[in-house]
């Protein structure tokens, strides 16, 4: 019975580490996408007719 509990504990520990790594990966990917979108944003020159 102790081996079964140990097996479940190890499996749950591995799943927890995997879930945390997926969270970090998602956050890193979201930051990369935001950086690419910011780089793609068109830069419009200021309108010379508008008051400053």
Notes on the protein architecture:
The chain has one helix spanning 2-40. The protein has 52 residues and is mainly alpha-helical. The chain has one domain (2-43). The mean pLDDT is 89.
Poorly predicted runs: none
Straight-line distance between termini: 77 Å
Helix-strand sequence: H
Shape call? rod-shaped
Q: How large is the count of helical segments? A: 1
Derived structural class? mainly alpha
Largest sheet: none
Number of strands: 0
Helix residue percentage: over 70%
Number of discrete domains? 1
- Which strand-content bin applies to the residues? under 5%
Radius of gyration: 24 Å
Provide the residue-averaged pLDDT.
89
Report a brief summary of the structure:
The protein is an all-alpha fold.
What labels describe this entry?
mainly alpha; 52 residues
Note the topology.
Elements: H1 2-40
């Amino acid at each position: 019975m102790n081996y079964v509990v140990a097996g479940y504990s190890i499996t749950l520990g591995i799943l927890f580490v995997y879930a945390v790594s997926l969270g970090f990966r998602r956050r890193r990917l979201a930051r990369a996408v935001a950086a690419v979108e910011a780089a793609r944003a068109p830069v419009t020159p200021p309108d010379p007719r508008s008051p400053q």
